[in-house]
Amino acid sequence: MGRAYEGVDTRLAEWLQAQPVFFVGTAPSGSAGHVNVSPKGNRGELVVVSPSTVAYLDQTGSGAETIAHLRENGRLVIMACAFSGPPRIVRLHGRGRAVFPGDGEWAGLAEWVRSAGGDPDGVGTRSIVVLEVERVADSCGYGVPLMAFEGHRTRMDEWASRKGADGIAQYQADKNASSIDGLPALGPR
Q: Which domain holds residue 94?
């Protein structure tokens, strides 16, 4: 059934990067607050930097729960499922952080995303989330349905383009400053 791995090897990296969707999960510290799980479309935006480091391009969205939770406690899990081919679920647990345009790490991480086909220069880009992997495990995935992938939606990119850089900055200030539980997200770091 399930196995644990020392890190993300080349074969697993290829599989992860080929999945059209992945999920990220975070939670605030303590028993209060909301657990968050977010689906992420993968258009070359999930990259395996090393056997112990995975990153993904974070787009501006309706909330900023992941960033808020990472700022508070750093706990992060990334999960991918095989919706076609052999059944499989892979979870990457570890400590995460958000790297923003202008941060010292940004250029190198942006190049990793670019090399995988992602667009770190897109107007909707908010950050690159980096996971320092502490545990890699897979499970059977027998309960995951088989589904046909039709393509990625273009609506988010169209929305961001219509808003433009200034509009996105204002949207982030208005809608992404804190989590639904009031934790700081995109505010002062």
A: 3-175
Q: Nearest-CA neighbor of 18 among 90, 75, 76?
A: 90
The CATH number of the domain holding residue 19 is 2.30.110.10
105, 55 contact by CB (below 8 A): no
What are φ and ψ of residue 73, in 5° steps? -140, -10
Give the chain's domain count.
Answer: 1
Q: Does any domain span residue 99?
A: yes
pLDDT band for position 2 (cuts 50, 70, 90): confident
pTM higher than the cut 0.90: yes
Length of the chain: 189
Task: Tell me, yes or no, whether 90 lies in a domain.
Answer: yes
Spell 123-162 as b/e; 16+ CB within 10 A means b. Answer: bbbbbbbbbebeebebbebeeeeeeeeeeeeeeebeebee
The percent helix, strand, coil of the chain (3-state, each to 5) is 25, 35, 40
CA–CA separation, 122 and 54 (whole Å): 20
Give the C-alpha distances (Å, rounded to integers) separating 44 from 15, 64, 118, 132: 12, 21, 4, 19
pLDDT band for position 189 (cuts 50, 70, 90): low
